[in-house]
Amino acid sequence: MRRSRFMINTQKETPKEAVVISHILMLRTCMIKQLTSGIYSYMPLALRSLRKIETIIREELDAAGCQELLMPMVQPADLWIESDRWSRYDDLLCRFKDRKGHDYCLGPTHEEVVTDIVRQEVRSYKDLPVNFYQIQTKFRDEIRPRFGLMRGREFIMKDAYSFDVDQEASAESYWAMHKAYSNIFARCGLEYRPVEADSGDIGGNFSHEFHVLAGSGEDLILSCNNCEYAANAERCELTEPAAYAPEGDVPAPVEVETPGKKTIEDLSAFLKVSPERCIKTLLFRADDDLVGAVLPGDRELNEVVIKNDRSAVVFEMVTDEATFQKAGLTPGFLGPVGWPEDIDLYVDQRVLAMDNAVAGANRVDVHFTGVVPATHFPKNINVTQLSVARTGDTCPRCDGGTFKEYRGIEVGHIFMLGCKYSEAMKATFLDADGKEQPMVMGCYGIGVGRTMAAAIEQNYDDNGIIWPVQIAPFHVMLLNLDIKDDQVNGAVESIYTGLRAAGVEVLVDDTAARPGPKFKDADLIGLPLQVTVGSRGLKGGQIELKERRTGEKKSIPLASAVDEVVSALKNMGWNTP
Question: Does residue 491 sit in the same domain as residue 522?
C-alpha cells in the first residue's frame, strides 16, 4: 500500500479531548474519527489491525469447536421482559419504540437473543453441547463515555454462549474457553493476566477477567508471587485472620473527646495510634435499606461484597444529614458499639481480630477507646471479607506467597451463568430419561476495539505507537527519501515487490515530505520495522533497517533486503503466511 493513496492524515499536536495514550495516538495517527460522544469511525489503519484481532479470535474459537453466527443488534423488549432484565437493566440500555409502538433496545449483549435461538433449535441432550459466537457492534449508553475506544457507547465485541446438559459439562466448556482466550491474547502479542472476578449484572457465580497489563489500566488486580492465583481487587481473597478471643471480663469502652476528628488520619494523629488500630464505619443505602460497613481504618472497602449479598441495584454511600438523624447516627463519628438493631451491620474479618481498638461513639466529637469487637459489637452482625486486597497481603491459596499489585485493562470476561437465563426463558432439553431439564449456560466476551486500544496502552514510547507484529496494521514502513531519484524509486519498488511476494504487508511512504517528517510519522504510526532507502546509502549498495521497539538501526545490503526483513519479522514472532 502506498502512503500517497492511503488515508493517514497525522497530527503533530495532542488532541484536547484525549487523555489516555491510546486515544491520543489513535487520533494523531488518523486511526479513529469521533462522530459524536463515545461513537467512532474506524479509519483504514485501525481497521487493518482490528481485522487481524478478529482473525485470531475466529481461528481460536473455531479450533475450540465454536460456531459463528450473527444476531440482530435491535432486540425486542419481550425477550428482556422474559429474562427480567428490562426493568432491572439500568440506563445503559438504549430503548426505543417502532412505528407501531412496540418496545425495542439496541443490544448491549445477546444472552436473551441466543437463548431464544437455542430453545427453538435444541430438543435433546444429543444436540448438546453447542457454543455460538459472533463479532458484532454493541451499544451501551454510558453516562460518561471517555478514553476513546476504552469506554465508548458503540463498540465492537466478540460474544459467545455455551449450552450444556449439566454443571460438569458446562465447566468443561468454560475452561475450554479460558484456554482459547489465553491463546488469543498471547497470539496478539500482549502481556496479560486471567484473574478471578465478580460476575456483575451478567449473572452467574464464577468468572474470569482477562487483563492487558498497563500502567493506565482502570482495574486493580492482585497476583501471587508464588502461585498462579490472580484476581480482580474486588474479588481477591485474603487469608482470614484468627478472631481475638478475650479471656475473663472485658472493661467497657472508654469515652474520649475528639473535637472535629472525623477522619481516620486526623483521629490517628490526635490519639497517637496507628490507623490499623482505628475502626472505620460507613453507612450505605442498598435499594430501600440502610446498611453499615465496618473495617480497619487502614483498609479500603470492597463495596461489591455487600452489593452482591443484598442483590442491590442501587448501592451508594449516605451523605445527607437527614438520613443520619433519622437513623440515630452521627456522621463523622459512626461506630458499631450501640449500633441500631434495625440496620444490618457488615463487619470485616480483620476487625474481629482487633483488640483495644478505637471506634466512633455515635456522638459529636466523641470516640471510644479500648473497644474489643468480639465483646462490644452487636451479636447479629454479618462477618465477611470487606477489605480490598493490596500489595504485601498473604495469598490464601498457597504457602508463603504474597500479592503484588498491577494495573490492568479488561479486554475479556468469561462467565459460568448456570441456569439464570434458561430457566427464566424456558430453554430446556430432554435428557436420556426423557425428562425436561434446563440448559446450563456460559457466556464469553472480548472487546475487540478495546483490545486494539489496550495493545497501544501497553506498547508505546514518547515518539508514538510500537505495534506487536501480530496485530500491526502493516509489518513494514518503507521510506523513500527521494521520490525524484530514479535509482531510489527502483530500489524501493524492488524491495516492495519482494516483500509482498514473501507475504509481508508494506506501507510505502512515497510522499514528497522531507526526511525528518517522514521519520517522525514512521515512529508515530509505529510499524514493527522501518526500511529506509536514500540516494546516499544506495551509492554503496546499502539501505537502513530500523526496529521500532528497540530503535536499533543497521545498514544492510540492498541485495539481501527482503531476506533480512523477513528474518527480523520472524524473530519478532511473525508467522509466514
Answer: yes
pLDDT at position 501, please? 97
Residue with cell 490492568: 408
Q: Dihedral (C-alpha) 159, 161, 167, 171: value to the nearest 10 degrees?
A: -50
Q: What's the whole-model pTM score?
A: 0.86
Helix (H) or strand (E) holding 108: none
| Dihedral angle over CA of 364, 369, 374, 379, nearest 10 | -20
If DSSP codes are grouped into helix, strand and coil, which group holds residue 414? Answer: strand
Q: Both 7 and 92 in a single domain? A: yes
Instruction: Quote the domain boundaries for residue 132.
Output: 3-146+162-237+405-457
What is d(CA 201, CA 84) in angstroms, rounded to the nearest whole number?
A: 12
pLDDT given at position 341: 94
CA torsion sign, 40 to 42 to 46 to 48? positive
Question: In angstroms, rounded to a whole number, what is the distance separating the alpha carbons of residues 576 and 568?
Answer: 12
Query: Residue 564's CB: how many other CB atoms inside 10 A?
Result: 17
350 three-class SS: coil
CA distances (Å), origin 537, targets 132, 488, 531, 544: 55, 10, 12, 8
Q: Measuring CA to CA, which residue among 81, 86, 90, 79 is closest to residue 313?
A: 90
Residues 549 and 414 in one domain: no
Burial category of 323 from C-beta neighbours within 10 Å (exposed 0-12, middle 13-18, buried 19 and up): middle
pLDDT tens for 105-117 read 999 999 999 999 9
Domain assignment present for residue 79? The answer is yes
Angle among Cα 261, 263, 265 to the nearest 5 degrees reads: 100
Pairing of strands 103-106, 74-76: antiparallel
Quick: pLDDT tens for 36-85: 999 999 999 999 999 999 999 999 999 999 999 999 999 999 999 999 99
Given this model, what pLDDT does residue 201 score?
A: 54
N residues, the chain: 577
102 strand-pairing partners? none
**Nine cell digits for residue 75:** 432486540
CATH number at residue 502: 3.40.50.800
Identify whether the C-beta of residue 158 lies closer than 8 Å to the C-beta of residue 134.
yes
Write the CA distances from 125 to 40, 122, 412, integer angstroms: 43, 8, 29
Three-class SS string for 522-573?
Answer: HHHHCCCEEEEECHHHHCCCEEEEEECCCCCEEEEEHHHHHHHHHHHHHHCC
Residue 464 lies in a domain: no
Q: For residue 147, which phi and psi values (nearest 5 degrees)?
A: 65, 30
pLDDT category, 218, cuts 50, 70, 90? confident
Q: Phi-psi category of 106—alpha, beta or left, where left has phi over 0 and alpha has psi -120 to 50?
A: beta
Confidence of residue 532 (pLDDT cuts 50, 70, 90): very high
Q: For residue 243, is it within any domain?
A: no
Beta-strand ranges (E) seen in 190-323 are 192-196, 206-213, 219-224, 230-232, 254-257, 279-286, 289-296, 315-317
- Tell me the one-letter amino acid at 164: D
Distances (CA, A) of 172 to 129, 207, 351, 550: 10, 14, 39, 42
